[in-house]
Amino acid sequence: MKEKIASQTVGVAQPAPGAKKGSRPSAKSRKRTADGAGADGQNPFRTTMRRSRAPEPATMVIFGVTGDLSRRKLLPAIFGLWQDGLLGSAFNIVGVGRQEMTDDEFKDYAVKALQESKETDAIQPGSLEKFRELLFYEFGEFGEDEVYDLVGQELDRAEAAHGGRKNALFYLSTPPSLFEPISNGLGRLGLADQSEGWRRIVIEKPFGRDLDSARELNAAIHATWDESQVYRIDHYLGKETVQNLMAIRFGNAIFEPLWNRGYVDHVQITAAEDLGLEGRAGYYEEAGIVRDMLQNHLMQLFALTAMEPPAAFDADAIRDEKTKVLRAVKPIPLDRVDQVAVRGQYGPGSMDGERVPGYREEPGVKPDSRTSTYVAVKLEIDNWRWQGVPFFLRTGKRLPKKVTEIAVVFKRAPLGIFPGGLERNVLAFRIQPDEGVSLKFSSKSPGQEMVLREVVMDFRYDAFGAQLESPYSRLLLDALIGDATLFPREDEVDHAWQIVSGILQAWDVRPGKGRTPDFPNYAAGTWGPEDAEALIGPDRRWRRL
Length: 545
Ligand SMILES: NC(=O)C1=CN([C@@H]2O[C@H](COP(=O)(O)OP(=O)(O)OC[C@H]3O[C@@H](n4cnc5c(N)ncnc54)[C@H](OP(=O)(O)O)[C@@H]3O)[C@@H](O)[C@H]2O)C=CC1
Ligand SMILES: O=C1O[C@H](COP(=O)(O)O)[C@@H](O)[C@H](O)[C@H]1O
Prior knowledge:
It comes from Deinococcus radiopugnans ATCC 19172. By secondary structure, the protein is α/β, with parallel strands linked by helices. It contains 13 helices and 18 strands. Helix 6 (211-222) runs antiparallel to helix 12. It binds NADPH dihydro-nicotinamide-adenine-dinucleotide phosphate and the ligand O=C1O[C@H](COP(=O)(O)O)[C@@H](O)[C@H](O)[C@H]1O. Ligand LXAUTJHC binds at residues 273, 292, 404.
């Protein structure tokens, strides 16, 4: 175990020199200088954050700090918040890993990660040097007490600079198999105890690998933590445009009267990715698309679209409504799976004119892998609002483009008095990219004849003139402030697992179990298996995005 540097100090969070909060990015400022700063010294990439509350002094402890998520997303998000002066009067980070490193080596590692990540805001002159002072590192075996003891000592050291408090946010950015041992370890050493400051734990996804293991994990976590201390993170909820779905639904009067079985024909939720595995075979071979995207991100989008209006915009009211609608989803027992779900695995194909390998040819993937990289599912909700309105969800890797969208497709007008067929109106929430909302409807096209054409009214998020913040920035700040509104609660996660567990069982990839899928069944660069068209058809079609 490394020796601690005796003179270690705890950094005090102050905005970086030259940071101008809330300034609008000019076209000129968007050009980065050599160290990443905007040409006029402004931060061109961050939107103004509307927080009236600042977090109390706190230490953020990141387990798995040497991992991909931490390097590409978490460190840049924290850096951006700090540089904007949003982390309160005192803040420091303790990275925890299994690799032996000194504090200085870790500081170098983190600075390099910030310089290399595409997610890093424009770096103000002098910022990195000051940010380094906030960083410390501990290492050890996550199954043994010693590393938690060292973490405890870090909190002790921060106490004076943190006004006598020992607030701590523990972020578990590790493989899921380590969530329970780390939670237990923190508990054993008394680090969940809130007598000297608040203690919260952020748990990454996937939360469990099926319903039973999710329940076991919840029980194990609750042996140490009260539910109010637990923040299960789903980064889709941190996306501005996902929050905008709630803003539009519940901040306007014109949508609610239409948001039901009387007017809505069906809803399509798409999360398409053009990327393949990106070197994550070890994880993905275990997870597959249902655990990686459907059980969490898509279920959250679904719940926000379908839930009843909450009585208030607060954690309990919103999570109560999400849970209620998840509970109302018609169960998918094993014998219904074939009728309501389609799976796929991509084969070789072409993306942007370039040949790309199939899933089974990706490094680290077994040549006979039966892991699904595509899923489409039809959900039905047994409640008054949505009776008879199907929700179609689809997500997949190596589809033609990166696009996430929620489309509410309305019923046709009851009577066609104009020549030609009637089209369905569509209200589409573009979650990413080209963030915005569009309404498609029919209009008379100019001329003597009464000919109708489909037109689109489009709101683009860039009309606000600010870049969207990273979802991790939003969620990390929420967790530091203690706002759990955008974090799924235990019962939500449980219900989401209940919905997908029949699908997982039916598609179990263990040798000798289940039917052998005819994989690969879609070429990279196409919109997925043909069966997905049959799932939504015959009178409906997936949107061409
Ligand atoms: N990467 C991403 O884009 C996303 C990741 N997530 C979730 O975030 C979490 C972390 O993912 P990611 O960063 O990709 O994972 P990685 O595998 O890249 O890294 C995880 C971290 O855990 C450490 N680790 C792994 N095994 C052990 C072990 N046995 N004992 C101690 N430490 C260990 C790694 O250490 P070492 O560096 O030494 O290997 C590393 O620091 C996962 O739960 C993942 O599902 C969620 C959304 C997106
Ligand atoms: O959690 C995950 O999400 C990403 C997609 O996230 P996005 O914000 O880029 O849409 C996905 O690529 C990854 O497999 C999954 O683990």
